[in-house]
Amino acid sequence: MDVVRCWVLRALVGVPVLPRLRTCLIAEELVRNARVHGCAPCLLRLALDATGRALRVFVEDCDPRSSGTWTTGAGLAFVDGMSRGWGVMRRDGGKTVWAEVALGLRMPGITIPPVPPSSHRPKRQGHFDGWS
Predict the structure, then answer these.
(1) Separation CA 114–CA 119 (nearest Å)
(2) Inter-helix orientation angle 17-37/2-11, to 10°
(3) Residue 92 and residue 107: Cα distance in Å, rounded?
(4) CB 56 within 8 A of CB 19
């Protein structure tokens, strides 16, 4: 997960420390869940909400078995406690799990790269293909 942590911390330069660390921990947990419970490829995205006061973390996977109820295990309980809210969006061919982190102030000047730089993409490990 060092790759996720490094990318998120670099992507959020200029964001106050506490929301940046919360976002990092949430992203790591959602990516870990996608690796354990989903199917590759996985995609991590960050986006500001329309007000510029909250950051959204999205992790997509390609698990075709995206139906059923979601139980809140330890990882999602952690995400629930660290975020303003989280949820699951089902889509054709997979699902997207999201969480929202309050920034505490408006951050209109943040630019978030769409994908990690190629030098920070993980090598193929197990069933995780990185960001594709």
Answers:
(1) 14
(2) 140
(3) 33
(4) no
Residue 19 lies in a domain: yes
pLDDT tens per residue across span 44-94: 999 988 888 899 999 999 886 655 555 567 888 899 999 999 999 888 888
Beta-carbon count within 10 A of 14 CB: 10
Identify whether the C-beta of residue 110 lies closer than 8 Å to the C-beta of residue 22.
Answer: no
Q: Residue 88: which domain range?
A: 2-107
Cα Rg of the chain (Å, integer): 14
Q: Is residue 120 part of a domain?
A: no
Strands, sheet with 85-91, edge to edge from the N-terminal-most edge strand? 43-48, 54-61, 94-102, 85-91
Judge contact between 104 and 16, C-beta under 8 A: yes
Rounded to two decimals, the pTM is 0.75
Torsion of CA 1, 85, 94, 44, to 10 degrees: -30
Q: What is the CATH number of the domain that holds 90?
A: 3.30.565.10
